[in-house]
Design goal:
The chain is an alpha/beta fold. The chain is about 30% helix and about 25% strand. The relative contact order is 0.19.
Length: about 260
């Protein structure tokens, strides 16, 4: 195994265990020791870089692959690189949302703007009442902030049949499902692996010096290109099938055992 210089962690089901819905103490201690040993700590998430929440911020990630690879940010949450929608793509998504009375939140460089039907967005109230808080979210009933700056990504809640009809074979825009009617929407081809490629290019590293730890479908692409892939014990079979090592579950000291396997602690 090549000497690992960067470890990339998924969040839900990897850093956060799905039993107690917290970051286990063993994971916190192992990550701190890993950082002391000079290995970079990176988070890869669908969340925004400014909307991680206190528990993740307290871990002090060196870099963040945010919005499913659409944005790369440093430890101070400053954007290094982003893949924004074009004006035409924004107009198409906005027209679809209006025609289908969809829940719609745009994710910009510094805040998330709530355009319409926040009551339809299943995660919004939970995040606003969590350690993320209300600060990252701005009500925008005028639905015009995209005229000042282009968004990086968005969240849409709409009927799946309508989404499939409008964007099922789209060449520019991807609707990535995360619930029955909820979608992370990004430019076509973007995923966590794109964010990882942006990071190694920025750091002038080789992918063989990177390990990725994940548990679910949206981790597959980055795990396939990393030098070493580790699946959580609670992960889906598809993730375990491509992993170099399957650690224990997130609530059973999985991160600690993964970092021991990587010789990072």
């Amino acid at each position: 195994m090549n000497k690992i210089k960067v470890v990339v962690f998924d969040v839900d089901g990897t850093l956060y265990d799905l039993v107690r819905h917290e970051i286990p103490a063993s994971a916190i201690q192992a990550i701190q020791k890993m950082k002391e040993n000079g290995v970079l700590f990176v988070i890869a998430t669908g969340r925004t870089h400014y909307g991680l929440g206190k528990a993740l911020n307290d871990l002090q990630p060196d870099y963040i692959l945010a919005m499913n690879g659409s944005a790369l940010a440093d430890k101070d949450h400053h954007l290094i690189h982003s893949h924004c929608f074009t004006k035409e793509e924004v107009d198409r998504i906005l027209t679809f949302a209006h025609q289908n009375d969809a829940g719609l939140i745009w994710k910009f460089a510094h805040h998330m703007y709530i355009y319409q039907h926040p009551e339809k967005i299943d995660w919004l109230e939970g995040q606003m009442n969590s350690d993320i808080g209300k600060e990252p979210f701005i009500d925008c009933p005028s639905q015009d902030h995209h005229l000042q700056e282009l968004p990086i990504a968005c969240c849409v809640h709409a009927d799946p049949q309508a989404v499939a009809k409008a964007f099922g074979h789209d060449s520019e825009i991807s609707f990535l499902p995360y619930s029955e009617d909820g979608y992370d929407v990004v430019k076509k081809g973007l995923n966590k692996s794109v964010g990882l490629l942006d990071l190694v290019d920025y750091l002038h590293l080789d992918l063989n010096q990177v390990a990725c730890i994940g548990d679910n479908y949206n981790d597959l692409e980055m795990m396939k290109i990393a030098g070493t892939a580790i699946a959580m014990g609670n992960g889906i079979d598809e993730v375990k099938a491509i992993a170099d090592y399957v650690t224990s579950s997130s609530d059973q000291d999985g991160i600690y055992h993964a970092l021991k396997y990587l010789h990072c602690i």
